[in-house]
Amino acid sequence: MHKIENSAEINNAPETVIKYLWNVNNLPNYLPISKVKVLEKREGHIRLSHKLAAARMNMNLVCDFRKLENDTKLEYQTIKGMSVHGSWLCQPTDKGTNLTYTLEYEPPGWIFGTILDKLVIAKEMNRISVEALQKLTDILRGRETIQN
Q1: Residue 103 to residue 5: CA distance in whole angstroms
Q2: Strands, E assignment, 1-143
Q3: Nearest one of 65, 94, 93 to 79, comparing CA atoms
Q4: What is the Cα–Cα distance from 133 to 4, expressed in whole angstroms?
Q5: Which H or E run includes 21?
Q6: What integer pLDDT is reported at residue 109 of this predicted model?
Q7: What span, in angstroms and rounded, lies between the C-alpha atoms of 56 and 93?
Q8: Domains of the chain (ranges plus CATH)?
Q9: Which of 19, 53, 48 is nearest to 125 (CA)?
Q10: Could you report the per-residue pLDDT of 36-81, keeping only the tens digit for each?
Q11: Which of 88, 121, 119 is nearest to 1 (CA)?
Q12: What global pTM score does this model have?
């Protein structure tokens, strides 16, 4: 698996950041996804389907989202589509929250997947990660409460 990790300082409490991230209706606000549909929801777990636009492809994915570590960490894992595992970790700071986004993925295909990863996918996944953090920082800047 290939791993990408990026962090940003957000001037909101970790609870506010996690609350915003946990609301799956907010996903298209900071990630290149569309057609989000909740398939199953229970305490600390959401299964959803969505389309991801990345590396000049539109992929249909099904993901499991989970709240972990006393609601300071969210994890997701694809269960259908490209193999992707990621997490959002919120750590309190004097200024608000240090948000770390970790993304691990397995390029699709066999030898061609490795070649495609070196040419396109790795750059695209890193771009998505950096842009997601920037969009989240912009969205949450100055907000004290987030609507569900």
Answers
A1: 6
A2: 2-10, 33-42, 45-54, 57-68, 73-80, 83-92, 97-106
A3: 65
A4: 13
A5: helix 14-22
A6: 64
A7: 37
A8: 2-140 (3.30.530.20)
A9: 53
A10: 999 999 999 999 999 987 767 788 889 999 998 778 999 999 998 7
A11: 121
A12: 0.82
